[in-house]
Design goal:
This protein is mainly alpha-helical. The chain is built from 10 helices and 2 strands, in the order H-H-H-H-H-E-E-H-H-H-H-H. It is globular, with a radius of gyration of 23 Å. It is found in: Cell membrane.
């Protein structure tokens, strides 16, 4: 039975907009990052894995749309846990890969002649594989059936509870907050600070290049803080808050923070704009091409309508 109301409707439209926008944009990111890989650009490897992670998560959002539309989870506990697994895998592969991009830029700007072996496609590929393996193992030890799936005789819910945590789940949330948020933020802040110092002191760096590097680091840092910060703060609150009344209204805020985190899926095309000099121009070309298609479609519809109007006038 349809359970849509003022509580679920905003989330339904929000996730639908994310899916419609993120799937084509991340397919585009997969294509352009693959072109970078073919040109032996190690950043293409990190971008490719970012887009792949976002695409997998975005496709899985269709299950959440069904949940929001019907008001109950109809796909069973195993699929629920798998969807939660996809969510947290996207969280931690994304912030780890964002850190890799920032560290790569740090090495390129601050130590351009040292550690060149770390800035190769083969190294980036190995690092990406290690990230996927570590994140999968980390999630396997921190995601539980108890915290993901809830079922009784009348209905079932998936990741839609805010019950007091057990001791093991509380430890898992602390680990997520420290390893999945604080450590990446510190790495990004350090890389950003060192790059800004190096760029300002290096007169040989062009002003346009300085702005591009600054924008790249700003997008990465804001993406991490804005998309993942609220969710991880809510994870800590779940440890502190134990009464059911407070948990009831914190659940809605928690759901908002999860929705905000899904905006991370739209970050890859923005990163592509600032990683290469031609990136922004290429994105503009794609946007202009799509806009041109819409204009052609609109003009064709106008001409058809004018033709129908003239035909009616002739008959009269």
């Amino acid at each position: 039975m349809n359970k849509l109301n003022s509580y679920t409707l905003p989330f339904l439209f929000f996730y639908l907009a994310i899916i419609i926008t993120a799937i084509p944009s991340n397919i585009f990111s997969l294509y352009v990052s693959w072109q970078h890989i073919r040109q032996k650009n190690e950043l293409g490897v990190y971008l490719f894995n970012l887009a792949l992670s976002d695409l997998i998560f975005t496709i899985g959002l269709s299950l959440w749309l069904d949940f929001l539309w019907n008001g109950v989870w109809a796909h069973g506990g195993y699929v629920c846990v798998l969807s939660v697994y996809s969510l947290f895998t996207n969280f931690y592969t994304s912030d780890a890969l964002l850190c890799c991009i920032a560290i790569d830029r740090y090495l390129a700007v601050v130590h351009p002649l040292k550690y060149t072996f770390l800035r190769k496609v083969s190294t980036a590929t190995a690092v990406s594989v290690v990230i996927w393996v570590l994140v999968v193992c980390f999630n396997a030890t921190t995601i539980s059936w108890e915290d993901s799936y809830s079922e009784n005789n009348e209905f079932s819910l998936c990741f839609d509870t805010f019950i007091p945590l057990s001791e093991n789940l509380a430890r898992a949330n602390v680990a997520r907050f420290i390893l999945g948020f604080i450590v990446p933020v510190l790495l990004l802040v350090f890389s950003t600070w060192r790059i800004c110092v190096a760029v300002k002191s290096n007169q040989a760096t062009e002003e346009q290049e300085r702005r591009r590097i600054s924008k790249l680091l700003t997008v990465i840092l804001l993406s991490l803080l804005f998309c993942f910060g609220p969710t991880h703060v809510m994870m800590l609150l779940r440890i502190v808050v134990n009464d059911c009344w407070t948990n009831a209204w914190l659940l809605y805020i928690y759901k908002i923070s999860i929705a905000i985190s899904s905006l991370n899926c739209l970050a890859d095309p923005l990163l592509y704009c600032f990683i290469t000099k031609m990136g922004k121009a290429n994105v503009k070309q794609v946007v202009l091409f799509i806009r041109g298609l819409f204009k052609q479609h609109f003009r064709r519809k106008v001409r058809e309508k004018e033709g129908e109007t003239r035909a009616h006038v002739s008959i009269d």
